[in-house]
Amino acid sequence: MSPHARIGWFCHVPWPGCDMIALLPNRKRILDGILGASYIGFHTPHYRDNFLSCVEKLTPYAVDKKARSIRVNGRIVRVGVHAVGVPFETFDRCGRDPEVRREAERIRAELGAEKLVLAVDRLDYTKGILERLHALEMVLQDRPSLRKKLCFVQVAAPTRPSVPGYAELRREVEAVVGAINGRFAEGGWVPIRYWARSISGSELVALYLAADVMAVTPLRDGMNLVAQEFVASRHDERGVLVLSELAGAAHYLRYAVMVNPWWIEDTIRAFVTALEMPEEEQRERMRKLREETRRIDIADWIPGFVEELEK
Predict the structure, then answer these.
(1) What are the angstrom distances between the C-alpha of 215 and each of 63, 71, 130?
(2) C-alpha dihedral (85, 90, 93, 97), degrees to nearest 10
(3) pTM (two decimals)
(4) Beta carbons of 148 and 186 less than 8 angstroms apart
């Protein structure tokens, strides 16, 4: 390898605080390996600043926080922020497609829901699926007026099915869904529809259009593009995004209803707030969310990173 080659390294997951990295027995080797790059990127300023603090406290290298750079054995390693987004125009255009809009109407009619809450995740322990289900159960328990009106659709695309921990998670999620439906289902009404499968792009956008509330409540997430896909699809400027404050997207999508997914009472509050939000407030929030989502379009991510790498 050429000693003058420029190497870029991008971190797609959250970079934790120094107190967490300090627990690792090979922390310096890990940091040294990353610092072999010429330019390092993160999704949010918070992740970037956490990384700089780790290097400052756990290595002998000089950190210039103002310049966001590190001197490593005579080299300068720069650190920056590049938020990854979604192809805004693609989702916006799909959301305006008459066939997709008809599919959204069909979904609502089939579910018979006055209020439709949607969540779309990989079946992964980081996504907060169990915590979300328990919060929904408490909403149904404490607000009987929502029964027969509310339908929650949880799409959970299978992932790593051969790994025992993921197989156990699936069994646990299915058991909780069954218990909640068994407790509250009445007549032809079933509160939770659980779809353990992947879905196509147009079907996904139809679901986004059908939803009154989009629940994106991971326990921790580097960015989370589902939140942005939902916003980009909602050309009608309706619908409410409930977003975990522990997802990287929360740094940018500030007009979502923010929630601490580890605190069930806060998730309950967020659901109720979203379900009762007046249409005028929905439109105001969604307008601002769409402006920000358009600004961080995926088309700008790689060119921006490469441009900084080549400096």
Answers:
(1) 39, 42, 13
(2) -120
(3) 0.93
(4) yes
Which tens digits make up the pLDDT trace of 57-74? 999 999 999 999 999 999
Host H or E run for residue 41: strand 39-42
Helices and strands counted in the chain (H then E): 12, 11
For residue 291, what are its two tokens?
A: 């402006």
- The token pair at 58 is 């756990």
Compute the Cα dihedral for 31, 32, 33, 35 and give only its sign: positive
pLDDT at 133: 97
Rounded Cα gap, residues 128 and 132, in angstroms: 6
Can you state the percent helix, strand and coil of the chain, rounding each to 5? 50, 20, 30
Q: For residue 151, what is the DSSP state?
A: E
Confidence grade of residue 126 (pLDDT, cut at 50, 70, 90): very high
Alpha-helical segments (H) within the chain: 18-21, 27-34, 45-58, 88-96, 98-111, 129-142, 164-184, 201-210, 225-233, 264-275, 279-295, 301-309
User: Could you give the CA distance from residue 96 to residue 109 in angstroms, rounded to a whole number?
Assistant: 19
Q: What is the pLDDT of residue 3?
A: 66
How far is the C-alpha of 224 from the C-alpha of 86, rounded, in Å? Answer: 10
Q: Could you tell me which of 80, 13, 69, 36 has the C-alpha nearest to residue 304?
A: 80
Edge-to-edge strand list for the sheet holding 213-216: 192-195, 150-157, 115-122, 213-216, 240-244, 257-259
Of 223, 246, 244, 231, give the one whose Cα is nearest residue 282.
Answer: 231
pLDDT digits 0-9 by tens, 168-225: 999 999 999 999 999 999 988 999 999 998 888 899 999 999 999 999 999 999 999 9
DSSP 15: P
Q: Which whole-number Å values give the CA distances from 21 to 12, 25, 28, 77, 251, in the listed order?
A: 17, 9, 9, 20, 22
